[in-house]
Amino acid sequence: MHRRNSTRKRAIFIGIIASLLLLVTACSGNSDNAESVAESETPQSDYSKAASLLNAVSDGTAELYDEINDAFVASWLERTGQSVTIEQSAGSSNVQEEAINGGQLKADIATLSVGIDIDAIQAKGLIEEGWQQRYDYNSSPFSTAVAFVVRSDNPKGIAEWEDLLSGDVKIVMTNPATYSDARWYYAAPWAYSLDKDIDDTDAATAFVTDFHQHVAVLAPDEKAAENAFVVNGEGDVWVTTESNALRIANSTGKDKIEVIVPSVTLTVEPIVSVVDGNADGNDVREIANAYADYLFTEEAQTIAANHFFRPRFASITEQFAGVFADVALLTVDDNLTGWEDLQQALFADGGLFGQLPAK
Fold first, then answer.
1. Could you say which of 1.10.3720.10, 3.30.420.40, 3.40.190.10, 3.40.50.720 is the CATH number of the domain covering 143-268+327-355?
2. Of 123, 150, 174, 190, which has the fewest Cβ atoms less than 10 A away?
3. Cα pseudo-dihedral 121, 354, 224, 103, rounded to 10
4. What residues contact residue 102 under an 8 Å CB cut-off, 6+ apart?
5. Among 324, 292, 322, residue whose Cα is nearest residue 311
6. How many helices (H) and strands (E) does the chain have?
7. What tens digit of pLDDT does each residue of 89-143 get?
8. How buried is residue 318: exposed, middle or buried, by Cβ count under 10 Å (0-12/13-18/19+)?
């Protein structure tokens, strides 16, 4: 169910063509030639030669993909006998996109934070059209959610989005102008407000503006935001992803912080696409496709859950009962009108974020 749709169709098509060729040439008495033609229709890989993939990832998923890379290499070796190494480049989503489009990063796979960055690579001609329909869930193998990190015992009693706008609450944030993955954190209060009335953009503008007024730290990247809140003790609440918050709460922030997921919040959906032009040029398209396929297997989904990302398979989610908060999860595609419109409304030139007071 979770394999690439294009792979299934291609296999069926090739099978039909091969059968027709065999039938026609059998009637002409030249079956040997028919078999050779049919074989030429099916791409063959030389599994005796070692290969290498380059995966471009967003910072927030780097540790997860380190483990997935190792698991895929072992799985591929067992299936085919071929040795594969995977190099990984980590950075903010838009920086990765720009490096791929500029030719500095010859990534075979892009596993980025925001779909419009994959769209930009498609527009450059390196990814074929329809990348989002290659897999289920709009080619997002797992998800997380926008969440709050508070001090131990939650002294401000923060539970919902409105609590961030009350009294003297000070918010620590990552700046979406310098770190593109942080676009999710401003998109979340926007989506929350519009969930009450999808047509009331004035109310959503006011809500996000009020939210921004409580931002005391607008850090240049996610690590700087973590240091400001966890290490330096700045602010009352840090807005980040559930996966990042749970990772820290179970490691360096243990007994220092708590993770709060509001009852209604925005789903963060990292996405995957083979960078078709690069994978073809590097003669690794089959392996790159297989890597993307692998992300939708139970093994990879379990690895994701162990790194506090929400798996897509209910069977895996059931094994992690109590880890993920049971809340209403909004999505950019289902509850808004997609990232292209969201980018224009909030982050493009003339968008709301650019009109907010500098921090």
1. 3.40.190.10
2. 123
3. 20
4. none
5. 324
6. 17, 12
7. 999 999 999 999 999 999 999 999 999 999 999 999 999 999 999 999 999 999 9
8. exposed
